[in-house]
Amino acid sequence: MKKAILFCYSIHHGNTRKIVDAVAERLPVRVVGVPVREEIDLGEYDIVGFASGIYMHVIGKPMTALIDSLDGLEQKDCFTMYTCGAPGNGFDAAAQDPVKAKCARYLGNWHCRGFDTYGPFKLIGGLAKGRPNQSDIEKAVKFVRSLLEQ
Ligand SMILES: Cc1cc2nc3c(=O)[nH]c(=O)nc-3n(C[C@H](O)[C@H](O)[C@H](O)COP(=O)(O)O)c2cc1C
């Protein structure tokens, strides 16, 4: 099985982090929080992933900055993951496009809803309460496993 490094930006409820930590428990995946505070050699990994919450329709700014500045991404196969409050897949392009523009080969995207108490949603008890749940986790693991087994 291939080995991946998965960068994670998760600042609201730790929704995205919950997903990537569960993935890392079950697969050969190293999770690194963003902003990155250590030396990273992408050469040690077959695949590079980027997981973020969605904030004002886009992935976290520190994640975009990382994608722009990461040495060696041009030679790598990459994937993306995101969590968002809204239903549907309206943020696919926002999550994918920065990575697609830089990597050698884009492998795919996975997303699910994540508990959202931003702004007015707090007043109604939040959106997507209880998400991500165990079913989301299983789907995320299946997605990453399929990439590592390619
Ligand atoms: C400042 C802010 C802005 C957000 N903007 C959106 C948005 O535009 N669309 C959406 O569906 N969810 C939005 N959300 C909800 C988050 O995308 C959702 O809760 C996500 O799971 C957060 O991931 P995290 O807990 O890993 O940070 C926003 C949350 C915050 C805090």
Termini separation: 8 Å
What form results from the Cα inertia axes?
A: globular
Write down the CATH class.
Answer: Alpha Beta
Distinct helical segment count: 4
Q: How many β-strands, per DSSP? A: 6
Q: Give the uncertain stretches in residue-range form.
A: none
Strand content: 25-35%
Tell me, rounded to a whole number, the average pLDDT: 97
Q: Nearest-angstrom radius of gyration?
A: 15 Å
Helix content: 25-40%
From the coordinates shown, what is the CATH architecture? 3-Layer(aba) Sandwich
Largest pleated sheet? 6 strands, mixed
Condensed summary:
The chain is α/β, with parallel strands linked by helices and 150 residues long. The chain contains 4 helices and 6 strands; from the N terminus they run βαβββαβαβα.
Question: What distinguishing features does this structure have?
Answer:
Rossmann fold; six-stranded mixed beta sheet; 150 residues; 4 helices; globular; alpha/beta; binds flavin mononucleotide
Molecular structure report:
This protein has 150 residues and is an alpha/beta fold. 30% of the residues lie in helices and 26% in strands. Strand 5, helix 3 and strand 6 form a beta-alpha-beta unit. Helix 1 packs across helix 4. The chain starts with a strand and ends with a helix. Bound molecules: flavin mononucleotide. Flavin mononucleotide (FMN) binds next to helix 1, strand 3 and strand 5. Flavin mononucleotide binds next to helix 1, strand 3 and strand 5.
